[in-house]
Structures are given as C-alpha cells and as structure tokens.
Specification:
With 489 residues, this protein is an all-alpha fold. It has a single domain, classed as Growth Hormone, Chain: A. 72% of the residues lie in helices and 1% in strands. It has a two-stranded antiparallel sheet. The longest helix is centred in the middle third of the chain and has 29 residues.
Length: 489
C-alpha cells in the first residue's frame, strides 16, 4: 500500500503568496479579522470595567478590573487545550477552526447587546472558548503547509503574524473611536461586525486548504463518546456551583486561571512524555520544549501588561494630546501592531536570507526575553511622574522595543511548536505553547495589584531584571537544548 504525499510535500513548491503557499492567504485573512475583533474589544474592555457609570462604564475598581482582563486573556489561551483536543481526537483542525469562529461571533454580539456584567460574563466566556479553538488550530493548519526541512517556515509564520497585527492595529483604532463618540456598546458591536467579516471570508477559502488540515491525528474510540459528554456536563456544573458558593469571584479570577494553567501544563507535558505512541526522538524534542516554555512564560508576563498596567498608565499618566486633541486610551494598543506590520516583513526577509545560518530557536527565545526585560527598564526613565508626565513618543519608543522582543519569541514559538511536535500531538503541542501565553497573561493580570503609580521603581526594575536573568539562563544552556532538539533548529 502506497501512501499519498503529505500536504507539505505537495505544497512546498507553491510560492504564489509572497513566496509562500497560496493556502496561507486564507489563514492570513481569517486570523486578521479575528484579531481585529479580539483586540478591538480588548482595547476598550478594561476602561469599560473601571470607568464610572457616569462615563458609560461599570465602576469596577481598577485592580479588580485588571485581574478580570488578565484572567480573560489567560482563559483564551487556556482554552486552546480544548480546541486542540477536539481537533486531534474528534473533528480535525479545520472544522474546529470554523466552528470556533461562529462561537466568537456569538460572544461579541453578547457584549454588544446584553447589558452590564451579564453581557461581560456571557460575552467573555464565549470569546475565550472560541478564540482558544481558533488560535491553536489556525496555527496548526499553517504548519501543515510546510515540511520540517522547509526553510521558509519561520518566514511564513512571520507573514502569518503580519495578518494578526493588521487586525490588531485597526481593531483598537476603530472601536476606540466609536467608544469615545457613540459609547462602549457601539465599539463592541463593531468588533462583532469584524468577526462576521472574517467568518464570511474564511467560508469561501476553507475548501482550498490541504487535506491534512482535516486530519484527525488520534481519533477517539466511539465507545468513549458518552464518557466525554458526561465529563463535559460535570465540568460545566462544577463551574456553576463554584460561582454560586462564591469560590470563583471577580477578585480572584486571575489566580484561578494561573493555577489552572499551571496544572494543565504539568498534566499536558506528562501525558505527551509518557505516551507509548511517541518515539525516543520525539520525546527528546518535547523535553527541549520545556526551557522554551519557561522563557515564554516570563516574556508574556511582561508583554501582556499592555492590556493591564499599560492601559491604566496610558489613562492616568500618558500625555495623549496631539495638537490640542486627546486621542482615545485604546489607540495606544495600536502602536505595537504598527511596528509589527513594519518589522515582521523585515524579520521574514532576514530569516529567509540567512536560511540555515540564522540563529537557532533557543537563541531567539533568549534574546527575546532579554530585550523584553530591557523594555521594562526603560519605564524607569519616567517613573513616579504626575498626570500627563510621560510623553507619547516615550511610549512609542518603549513599544518599539516590545515589538522586537515579540518577533523573537511569538512567531518563532509557533513555528517551534509545530517542528518539535510528535506526530500524534500536532495540534496539542501548539496548545502547549499557548499555555505559556495563558500563564503569562494571567500573571500579567495578577501583577496589577502590585503596581503603585506613586512608587514605580521596584515594580519595573524587578520585573525587567527577572526577564533578563531568564534570557541569560537560556543562553547558557543553548547547546544542551539543541542536543535535545535532535537536528531541529
């Protein structure tokens, strides 16, 4: 019996989309619209929670509001586990991706149409579940377009990352403009419109994806379907009970997500490493992913503070006046995507030109953590100032450094997850990378309670130093990590 060629083998000569396979364009598009809705909503979410009722908000204390946003962001990436499991065991990545997009639309409509905390609760739960399912599976499908030896892979992921950030740029700009002129629910409604556009666009292109995008890598035996249904019902019931008895509250959400993500991480690594269905070489590569995972957590703990501490900082400390006009707070979150749009192409060209001479994945990760730590130390130049004391150009410069660090870790991490993944755990390995983002994002929300605008030196200096130490530690162990990667760089 002869096997059919893999998707990577049949598509690797295809260079119709800026030197990449044409199928990348369809994934580029759906991820761009999903990020438009995601960041458009998140750009105004924190201020919606802590602005006073007279300003159209809900009047939640800023520290608790930050914790909610961090917990929500962590839950998005935590739910990639569910999306990956559904893909690998039941439906395949492409089908889960399409279904997740529909759930996201429902979530944004809930935020736009339902009042107060009811809309926040229903909307954020649906968006977290849908975004988690879409993120892990879109990335996994991108991985099917390349063979492990294709040197275009990192460049392709960088181009895919450009699509993410086109959406991330326009989302906060437009939703922030609507929020400041018409109200918060109009901003949330625009995010829903963006996701509907993404769903329509993807529905036309999904049939052109490789057959391997529909593969169920490790099918669940049908006799275990009833058990899965029982577990799902029990999990939902448990969450409802914990909320009713007051165990799950707004002020401890970030802690709960941190503990959940940490437990899921340990369990996931244990399941994959102990599996009888992976070979010795595959197991070694999974071990190599552990130090990359730890470095990624340190990076995202700082980076994701764009949506927590930096939002509060921009509202209270940043001079946002431009020729007498005050720009919306959410627009600050569009600065980073501008640099991504510019620099992702530059990084893609650099990695393509260098080919096999480019720095290895562990080196890129280490440099990313060090640069991110340096970005936090830059805040010390403006520490403990008064209202409007930080120039807008200063934040622009700091976010430029954020972007350089991001491009050394985020697209590279997605690529590394697909390269190091055992055959039976393709999508779930991507979910493992997103678990590092979940941990880091939840930690970023938890850290808000320690941010004191009147005494910023300890906060920024300690967090910056920790990230730099983590990066230097990985640099010292590059050779052992590469040995565990067994030929993958």
């Amino acid at each position: 019996m002869t096997s059919s060629p893999s998707a990577a083998e049949t598509t690797s000569p295809d260079t119709r989309f800026f030197g990449q396979p044409l199928a990348l364009a369809h994934l580029f598009g759906v991820e761009m619209w999903e990020r438009f809705s995601f960041y458009g909503m998140q750009g105004i979410l924190l201020i919606y929670l802590y602005f006073s009722v007279s300003e159209g908000g809900l009047g939640v204390p800023a520290a608790i509001a930050g914790g909610i946003v961090g917990a929500y962001g962590g839950a998005v990436y935590l739910s990639t586990i569910l999306g990956a499991w559904l893909a690998d065991r039941l439906f395949g990545s492409e089908r889960v991706l399409f279904g997740s997009a529909i759930v996201i639309v429902a979530g944004h409509l809930s935020l736009a149409l339902l009042p107060g905390l009811i809309g926040v609760g229903v909307g954020l739960i649906l968006i977290a579940l849908g975004s988690g399912g879409l993120k892990a599976n879109a990335t996994s499908v991108v991985g099917t377009l390349y063979s492990a030896e294709d040197t275009r892979r990192d460049a392709g992921f960088s181009l895919f990352y450009l699509g993410i950030n086109l959406g991330a740029f326009f989302g906060p700009i437009l939703t922030g403009l609507l929020q400041s002129t018409a109200g918060f629910h109009w901003g949330f409604g625009l995010a829903a419109v963006g996701m509907v556009a993404g769903l329509i666009q993807y529905s036309f292109g999904r049939k052109k994806l490789p057959e391997s995008a529909h593969t169920v890598h490790n099918p669940l035996p049908r006799n275990r379907y009833p058990l899965v249904v029982i577990i799902a019902i029990a999990a939902v019931a448990l969450i409802i009970v914990l909320m009713l008895i007051g165990f799950v509250r707004a002020d401890n959400l970030s802690t709960i997500v941190i503990v959940s993500a940490l437990g899921a991480t340990i369990a996931y690594f244990a399941v994959i490493l102990s599996s009888r269905h992976i070979e010795a070489q595959e197991r070694s590569r999974v071990w190599a992913f552990v130090p990359l995972f730890i470095t990624s957590v340190a990076f995202w703990s700082l980076y994701q503070q764009q949506f927590t501490v930096l939002t509060v900082y921009s509202d209270k400390r940043l001079d946002r006046h431009i020729f007498g006009w005050e720009m919306p707070v959410s627009w600050v979150q569009s600065i980073n995507p501008i640099f991504i749009i510019v620099l992702s192409g530059v990084f893609a060209v650099i990695w393509s030109r260098l080919g096999k001479r480019q720095p290895s994945t562990p080196v890129k990760f280490a440099l990313g953590a060090i640069v991110m730590g340096g970005a936090f130390l830059l805040f010390l130049l403006f520490a403990d100032g008064g209202p409007g004391s930080t120039p807008l150009l200063a934040i622009v410069g700091i976010l430029f450094v954020f972007t350089v660090a991001e491009l050394l870790i985020s697209p590279i991490g997605l690529s590394a997850a697909t390269k190091l993944a055992p055959a039976r755990f393709q999508t779930q390995m991507v979910a493992l990378f997103f678990l590092s983002v979940a941990l880091g994002t939840a930690i970023s929300g938890w850290l808000v309670q320690f941010y004191d605008p009147s005494n910023e030196l300890p906060y920024f200096s300690m967090l910056g130093a920790i990230a730099i130490v983590v990066g230097l530690g990985l640099l010292l162990f590059v050779r052992p990590v590469l040995a565990l990667m067994r030929g993958v760089r």
